[in-house]
UniProtKB/TrEMBL annotation:
Top-level taxon of the source organism: Eukaryota
This protein's name: Calcineurin-like phosphoesterase domain-containing protein
Transmembrane segments: none
Gene Ontology molecular function: any one: hydrolase activity
InterPro entries: Calcineurin-like_PHP
Domain Calcineurin-like phosphoesterase stretches: 56-310
Organism: Zingiber officinale (Ginger)
Length: 397
């Protein structure tokens, strides 16, 4: 009898875990360990804003809902096996600078994959760290300007499976009744085609502050990271942002995503000069280098700022003597379908572009750095890229 009582006592949490695993697999095709191993690397505390430089650091730009191209970029960096989608980066540290959402139809699958890779990397002594981009912030605010029909379909499917999971949990009287994230979400959206209503409802429920997807996959994002001598941010930092406090920014944004500080995003996330919107150091060759130097001087040990957000059609490049490094290559098919590239920083000082572009792949032509090129040069390069894309994808995938 005692053993039977124990089984019955354990049934509700076992049922809850089974349902969660069932929903995860139905949405993403992935399973997650129920008891993830702790990160064996003491230099990578959870939710840290400042981290010592690892021996190998990789930075990856905007992904925008394109799973195949994201896997190509991760594989190019030697971080992921493209066939099994498992971590192969050992103790490397990787930073993805935000904008996983919008413009594509693989947004949820990318969020699930990145989460699984974080667990894999931690077990190997490495880390995959993710930042907020302006598109994560927009979606948490319910602004879906750049959502695609495929993206709405993906969230509609998530909504079906998530609510099925809620219904299954309610069958067990001993389980606490789970919160319904759809409560309070409008059921109709006048002016929008009815075929998209369920996708919009699910997207609002999932991504608003304290929504299931926001709390699980976005709340762990940082807004700013300092790793060794490199400052990572999606848009950029101004002096007033540093004055506010980088740790304070990260903590305040986390609380907002978790629904602990109201529905409105903090003001430094909004407007052209918000940390996820700023283009002062990433747009074109005219960069305010003196202002950038002043900002970096306010952050102890910082030598460079690494940013996404602004598509660099010629690939990863630098200005201001490599004080500003721009890594958004627009790889998503929903953007400019750019050739995957990633930034590698070895031992905190040696910087290298890893590129799949055959124009630069030949060692005789490859350069450790690129500067922004003039528009007339871009036109010439643009004529080469479409011809070489299919060969490059096959060779590097």
């Amino acid at each position: 009898m005692a053993a039977s009582d124990q089984v019955c006592a354990n049934l509700p949490p076992l049922l809850s875990s089974f349902v969660d695993a069932f929903v995860d697999f139905s949405v993403s095709g992935l399973f997650f360990p129920t008891n993830p191993s702790p990160n064996p690397n003491p230099n990578l505390p959870a939710a840290a804003t400042r981290i010592p430089a690892p021996s190998r650091l990789v930075a990856i730009g905007d992904l925008h809902g394109d799973l195949p191209k994201s896997l190509q970029a991760l594989s190019l960096a030697g971080l992921v096996d493209p066939f099994s989608a498992r971590w192969t980066g050992h103790d490397a540290v990787a930073v993805q600078v935000g904008d996983v959402l919008d413009r594509g139809g693989d947004e949820l699958r990318l969020l699930y994959l990145l989460h699984r890779l974080k667990l894999d990397a931690a077990r190997a002594g490495g880390a995959l760290l993710t930042l907020h981009g302006n598109h994560e912030i927009m979606n948490a605010c319910g602004r879906f300007r750049y959502v695609t029909p495929a993206g709405l379909d993906e969230f509609k499917r998530w909504g079906f499976w998530y609510r099925s999971g809620l219904a299954m949990k309610r069958l067990c009287a001993d389980l606490e009744s789970p919160r319904d994230p759809f409560k309070g979400v409008p059921k109709s959206f006048p002016g929008i085609k009815e075929e998209f209503w369920e996708g919009i409802r699910a997207r609002i429920a999932a991504l608003r502050p304290n929504g299931p997807i926001a709390a699980r996959f976005l709340a762990g994002n940082q807004t700013v990271l300092v790793i060794g001598e490199s400052v990572f941010v999606h848009g950029g930092l101004l002096q007033r942002h540093v004055d506010h406090g980088l740790e304070k920014i990260n903590e305040e944004v986390r609380k907002w995503i978790m629904g602990l500080s109201g529905s409105h995003a903090p003001p430094y996330l909004q407007g052209r000069e918000g940390v996820v919107w700023l283009r002062n150091f990433s747009d074109g060759s005219n960069c305010d280098c003196s202002h950038l130097e002043e900002v970096l001087a306010m952050i102890p040990g910082a030598r460079r700022m690494v940013m996404g957000h602004t598509i660099q059609e010629q690939g990863i490049n630098e200005v201001c003597d490599a004080r500003a490094i721009r890594i958004d290559v627009g790889l998503s098919r929903g953007c400019s379908d750019g050739l995957p590239e990633v930034l590698e920083i070895s031992d905190g000082v040696k910087l290298r572009i890893l590129t799949s572009n055959p124009v630069y792949y030949d060692e005789r032509l490859k350069r450790p750095w690129r500067r922004p090129v003039a528009k007339e040069e871009l036109e010439g390069l643009g004529m080469l890229v479409p011809e070489t894309r299919p060969q490059e994808m096959e060779a590097k995938a």
